[in-house]
Amino acid sequence: MLNVDQMAEMVSSIAKRLNVTDNELLTDLLKEAEIQVLDYTGQKKLIGSMSIYVKKLAIINYNRLGLEGETQRSEGGVTNYLEIGIPKDIRQGLNHYRIAKVTRL
């Protein structure tokens, strides 16, 4: 889990990037993104550059607020398809941190 200093630094960075002043919301989004990253990789804690992907995912989750459950949106004759789950570019970056699971046949 992110320590207090790391969390504060990431909240500050995201707040500047998104021009948002609600630090509680950003902290919540970072915690959710961290859990998503750890679940995807199977790791128990962040290692290497995984924190970069937590930050990217928190920003994406912020931009998805209000769109929960939608897979597409049409406005003015233009249809946008929304990616579900962790975007492909973030998954690709996290793939080398994934823990392989072995099962018996």
Question: Largest sheet at a glance?
Answer: 2 strands, antiparallel
Q: Whole-number average pLDDT? A: 88
Computed over alpha carbons, the radius of gyration is: 16 Å
Topology, number of strands: 2
* Count of individual domains: 1
- Largest sheet strand order: 1-2
Shape: flat
User: What is the terminal-to-terminal distance?
Assistant: 34 Å
Low-confidence stretches are none
Q: Approximately how much beta-strand content do the residues carry?
A: 5-15%
Helix share, percent: 40-55%
- Give the number of helices: 4
SSE order in H/E notation?
HHHEEH
Structural class: mainly alpha
Organism: Limosilactobacillus rudii
InterPro entries: Phage_gp6-like_head-tail
Protein name: Phage head-tail connector protein
Pfam families: Phage_connect_1
Write a structural description.
The chain is mainly alpha-helical and 105 residues long. It has one domain (4-97). It has four helices and two strands, in the order H-H-H-E-E-H. The chain has a two-stranded antiparallel sheet with strand order 1-2. Helix 1 crosses helix 2. The mean pLDDT is 88. InterPro entries: Phage_gp6-like_head-tail. This is Phage head-tail connector protein.
Task: Map the helices and strands.
Layout: H1 4-18, H2 23-41, H3 50-63, E1 72-75, E2 78-81, H4 88-94
Antiparallel strand pairs: 1-2
InterPro entries: Phage_gp6-like_head-tail
Protein name: Phage head-tail connector protein
Pfam families: Phage_connect_1 (PF05135)
